[in-house]
Input
Amino acid sequence: MLLYKITPRNLNLYRRLSIRYMIRNRGNLLEQTFEIINENGVNEILSYMKYNHITDDTFNSYMYIIIYEIFQLSIMMNFINEDKHSSIIKKSIHHVLLYIMFKEFVFPIALNMTS
Output
């Protein structure tokens, strides 16, 4: 049982609120949508490279973050204002560096402490 009746006025109101939300949160919505698409694309590329013996498992983890961030940069640069480009590039570089630091330094130390 519906608590309220769906009328053209309610549908029009919902449509306007949805459009307003999408306009206000355009950057976040685009980023979330492209993250899903980006992740699938990167996994396909790495699977192809591994199948053709171009890379191995140890190198794939580094390639994943690098390809992911390159895709993310190329997509976001087209949809975000030019004044935010430098912050997006810095953010991507920080992601790559943090991943490498954690993979090379933090995780081995944590594994050695537990054994």
User: Anything to note?
Assistant: The mean pLDDT is 81. The CA atoms of residues 77 and 85 lie 6 Å apart. The first helix runs from residue 8 to 24. Residues 26-114 form one domain.
